[in-house]
Each structure stands twice: as C-alpha cells, then as structure tokens.
C-alpha cells in the first residue's frame, strides 16, 4: 500500500469544559474522497480546523506525504497543499468574482490574468462562472463556485469541504459532484464533511465517523446502508417523527398577490405570492437560500408591512398590522437567525421569553412587565422542550445553537399559535434535537394549527410536509401534495420550473 | 504576549469595578499631569477631590455640589435612554440652551406680574424648547436617514449663536443701559427656580430626583424600558418583538431633549439667573461622560454626576488657590471618560498572558 496523503495520529484537543477531539486517528489516501461524518458538536469542525492550521492540537501528530505536518496558520497549510471551502462564505458582496479571488492571494497577479485563470479552471472542471460578475448578484451555488475556484487556483493536494451542499439545489449538487469526481481523477484528495448520508453514499470512497470527539467507526459508504451509517453517527437507533393522517381543516391564512420590495440591497423582493393554508396542515416551502425566505417570514411576522389585503387571516385583513397585533390573532413566527433576530444574545432567557410572548401570555399589566410570570413562562419552555441550561436567568448567548433553537421554537409553540411560520427549524441542530423539533411541529399541526415550515433541508420537508411549494427569486410555486413528489420534480420547482441557468440570469 | 479572550457573558465584577478603577487611573495620570505643570500632585488631587467635601470651607462648597450635579443628572438620565437604544444624541448642550431661552422668554414676557402659574409655564416652555431642538436631528434621522450624531452636534453651534443674538437682542434687559444679557430671573420671585438658595436647593434638584426614580422604574419594570434595551442590543430582535424603530428614535431624542431643556431652564431661572452670551457651561457635553461613567444606570448616573460636580468645584478651587489652568480640569474630565472606555474592555474580555500565540 502507498503512503497515505494525510495521516492523523492521536489528535486531541480540549477546550475548557469540553473535549472536542479525543485521540483521533485516520488516514486519507491520494485521489480519495473521504467523508467525515458526525452530528453537530461531534468535533468535525475542530478536526478540520486543526488540519487547516487554525487550531493547534494538544496532543497527536499529522503527517502529509510521510513528512511531519504542523501548520502554524492557514497560510502554512495552504503552502503545503491543503485548501478549504468553508460552510459560510467569506466573500465581499460589492466586488466582482475576480476581485474576490485576488483578495485571498498572497501576491495577486493583474485582474486580467486572474480572470483568464478563472475561466480556464471553470471550463476544465465544469464550474460555469463569469469572473466579471458582482458577487452580491450570484446565487449561493455560484458563490460556492467562487470559493472552490479560489482553492483550485492554489492547485491543492487536499481539498476540505465543510457541508458544501447545504445551500444547493439538487441540480447544483449534481454539478458539484461531477466537479469533485473530476478533481479526484486529477489526483486531488477531498475531505468531505456532511451529515447527508445519501450524498456520502453516492460520492465518497471512505468514511470516518466521529461521535463526541472520538472516532467510533469507519466504513465503506458504497457498501453501507444509510440507516447503518446514521446509527453509527448517533450511537443509537434514530427516532423518526410520527406523522398522523389529519382531516382537511378550514382555510386559516390566505396570501393574495403578496409583493414587497427588498428590504436592503442584497435582499430579494417578494413577487405576487398567492397561497392558502389550512388548519391542521404542514406546508413545506423549499428553496435555495436568498430566494426570499427571510422576506417571506418577515412579511408574515409583520416585520415587513404590506398592503392590507395581501395577508388575510381567518377572513381578516392583517397585511398592515405589526408583529404584536398579529401575535394576538395567533400568527406566530420563528426566524432563521437565532442570535440577534429570534433572540437577543446578551439578554436572559426570561427577557427573551418576554420578547415575543408578552402579548399572548399576558406578561405585562398596564405596560409594566410581570417579571415573575415571564420567568415562569421561560422555565416552562425550558422544561417542556428539554432546553439544557441551568435556568432562565442565563443569557441566550450561553446556550448551544441546538438548545437555543429548542427554546426559540418552544417559546412560540407554547403560545398555542393558530398559524406558525418557521424558517430553518433545525439548522445547525443535532439529530436528536432536530427530531424533537420536527415532532413538535407535527404535534402542533395535529392540534389544528397551520404550520408553514421554510427550510433548505429537502429531506426534512419531505418528512413533515403535507404540501410542498418552492421559492425562487421571490416567487412561490403552486403547492403540490408532498407525497409522491420525485427529486426531479422538486428540483424543477426549486429552479422556478424553467431552466436553471436562465433563472439565474433573470434573478 | 497579551491576548484578549471574549467572555461568554459580561463580567459582573468588572461592570462595577471598572468605573472605580477608571477614577483611580484618572487620579494617577491627572497627578502626573499636574506634576508636569509644576504643581504638587498630591495637594492638587486633594484640592479637587477632597477639599470640596471635607475642608473648613466645605459648608460653602457642599451646596454647590447640588447646583452642579442637578443639571448633569437631568441631562444624563435623558441621554441614557437614547444611548441604551443606540440613539446618539450628542447635542444636549444645544437643547439645554434652547430650554433656557424658551423658558426665560416666557418668564420675561410676564415681568413684572406675580403669579404662581409663571414658573410652571416656564418649566413647560423649557422642556418644549429642548424637545423641539432634539426633534430636528430625530425627524431627520427617521425621515431621511441622516446621522443624528452630526446633526445634533452641529445644532449646538446654531444654538450658541441663537443664544448670543437673544442676549444682545430680543431678551436683553431694557434697563441694563446697553449691556448684553437679560433681566435676572433669580431676582423675580414668581420666576425663580430657587427653593432655598443657601442650601443649593432649586426645583432642578427636585426634578432630577424625580427623573432618576422615573428612569429606574421605566428601565427595570416597564415594557418601554425593555424595548429600549432590546433595541440597543439587537435591533433586528427588537423589530421582531414589535418595536417601531422610528418611533423609538423620536421618543429617545424627545426625552433627552426635554430633560436637557428642563436643566437649562432651571439653571437660567436660578444659579445663573440670566440669559447671557456665555450662559452655557458645557453641562450638555459633560453629561455624556456622566451617563457612561454611571453605566447608563440611573443610580450610577447620580454617583457619576456627584463625581463630575466634584471635579468642577474642586477644579475651581484649584484654579484660584493653586493657579491651575482651567483647561487642566477639562483634561482631567476627558481622561475619566478615556480610562472608563479603556477599562471597559475588561468587562467583556478576559486578559490572558500566553507564551506563544496558541489558538
């Protein structure tokens, strides 16, 4: 057997109070797509940051091509041939593609040369990208291509990709996979981080599974079932949300020609959205990030006001009402961004409970806050939704992402909404918490509420939705029954039911 | 190597210790400054911070503490609402001048009639004058997105010129034989804000006390206080919670302008007595330091205002007894804010000494 490209031996890294990596050892062969699997908090990020020179391990060694590899910083890692595409892009919206790529270089050549290189690389690997376009106008998939090409220009031996498909449509995923396979043929190894098991089965040659910072197993994903891999990841059998058949309820929410201007320069305008939602149903809304999800939630929550009749609830025009007036009527929302939008990071959970529950839970009297009652309500949410925190007096910032998400969702659900709008309910949440949140959404629908779930996770939407619609460029497709929708049909809906490239030019 | 590590939650200890440490650092560096000016640093610091309270002439200086402190408290309390909400009214000095002009104008219009209604009318006019002056940057920000820092600050200079033209024109004392300045309101029984002049007690002190209690209850118990804090910490969350950001800007500007106007009115109708060209003494700017030194907390503001009043009075003693230049006292006050902001880092960050830059 040849020397592995990268060998990790007993890597250990501890942070105060938590061991992120414990004695992690595995090897990546040249020309191999190696999957790194694990739940949120399993230590995947710390591990790749170690390889990329962002984190120094407390113990253990790495060998690159047989030589000791101890990158002091990402620059050293890049020089040794390790490149990384992060989950969150670091691009400047107001600059064009070539300028963004030049920014990441040590000694950037002239723009014209970069543009030529970009064209060459994008042709070679089948990644269509125009170097003169402004990044703020690109789709998420195209932004990712900028990041990938930026890495490829360094001619890396190992490319690390952190959850690359979370923002892509199925068609864009296909393009990405073709590129990655071509890279493998060209001799580049790829460390592929994901928790989407189907993808890993389709793409990867080897897989290492992390759990609580330790390697708990390796497998050949081509010969292992998704269920087996999932159980390796979680360490127990998975709880699959239970979806009961529900009778068709009365129409509760109607959108008629809902349109709204983009709230800021890189936002998306909502265009002429028509929709009816019935009690007792879960409507899933898919779409690639940046196609109007935030704006739709804001128009429903009351953060964006629209024409009176554009939003009707139980026959009443509410498009002009603010968030608290809508809450009183039973229309509640949970936005995507937990920190700073759904919750104030430096405020206590009691104060954060007050943030949305003041109207429906009667937490104020003649304008004065009833702090005791607010604390009781926060405690009730913490208890009912199994939020791991010492108590309601702790700040939102001190909670992990999944725990805060449970609190934020629980805070709304426990107010008995008639209509509940939620954006990315399980983003960055570990598998068991995600299952609990999905179950809570289904329970809410069972009780007769209408649930509008906006998500980029298609598996999640297919799991809980009764009907499915997609957002594209601020337009909403007509909803279709979720049962029996094929991946191709979903992909076409996400792409706006016409050719994707055309849609991007328009968008 | 010194590294700063962000704390998960602001340190409770340093929240209270930072102002104290800032005062101590100011004393040390102020002492060095005075030594460089050729004064004995210990004597100077004692003159400024100790003599007004405990020297043999303290009976004279202690009432001064109320006189200097009351306008600082009134203005700083108003500013603290805006500063908590991210509304930066830097022009309280201008609103203070306008409050004084409007209030004095009402009082002078009634001269020499005697009536119990004159002072309340003046108080109303003073508050409205300051409020209206603050509404200019407020409305401009809400309607056109202008920067309220610049607009409110520039309006201070407009207000100063207005003050000069009033002192020389419309409000000039017709019996002053051409000298600039208005009639003395402190000598007009129906218009004076004095309650007991020898004790330093005037209506401004009473209003400052009421403002402190009112602010304390609003911030800790009322939903509006919650919205103010929320808007400052997370504007998006505030919008989600149903806060109307434009209205909040107007209310915060209005409250701070109104209270600054009140402070101006009480000053002109009492301690100062008359509208003169150089009537304003920088309370509006010093109150910014007071607000931050007091952690934007009503009780903290009272303590901070006391300290600043002390430096004013002690500074005057040092000027007359030790021949210290007036600018040296202003430097001392500036140092206080400077050190407070510097020490504040400790509230949010932990200082780590490391051998190497290990992440």
Brief rundown of the structure:
By secondary structure, chain A is α/β, with parallel strands linked by helices. Chain A contains 17 helices and 23 strands. Helices cover 34% and strands 23% of the residues of chain A.
Outline the structure in words.
- The complex is a heterodimer of chains A (507) and B (359).
- Chain A is α/β, with parallel strands linked by helices and 507 residues long.
- Chain A has 17 helices and 23 strands.
- Chain A has helices at residues 44-51, 74-79, 97-103, 111-124, 140-152, 170-185, 197-203, 226-234, 293-301, 323-329, 349-357, 371-384, 401-413, 431-446, 458-464, 487-494, 500-506, and strands at residues 6-15, 18-28, 33-37, 59-64, 67-68, 82-85, 158-162, 189-193, 206-211, 214-219, 251-260, 270-278, 282-286, 311-313, 316-317, 331-334, 364-365, 368-369, 419-423, 450-454, 467-472, 475-476, 480-481.
- In chain A, the strands form 5 sheets. In chain A, strands 13, 16, 19, 20, 21, 22 and 23 form a 7-stranded mixed beta sheet that branches.
- In chain A, helix 3 (97-103) crosses helix 4 (111-124), helix 11 runs parallel beside helix 13 (401-413) and helix 12 (371-384) crosses helix 13.
- Chain A starts with 5 loop residues before the first strand and ends with a helix.
- Mean pLDDT of chain A is 86; it is low at 497-507.
- With 359 residues, chain B is mainly α.
- Helix content of chain B is 70%, strand content 4%.
- Chain B is built from 15 helices and 4 strands.
- In chain B, the strands form 2 sheets. In chain B, strands 1-4 form a two-stranded antiparallel ribbon. A two-stranded antiparallel ribbon of chain B has the order 2-3.
- In chain B, strand 2 (194-196) and strand 3 form a beta hairpin.
- In chain B, helix 1 packs across helix 2 and helix 5 packs across helix 11 (245-268).
- The two termini of chain B are 13 Å apart.
- The relative contact order of chain B is 0.21.
- The chains are: A alpha/beta (507), B mainly alpha (359).
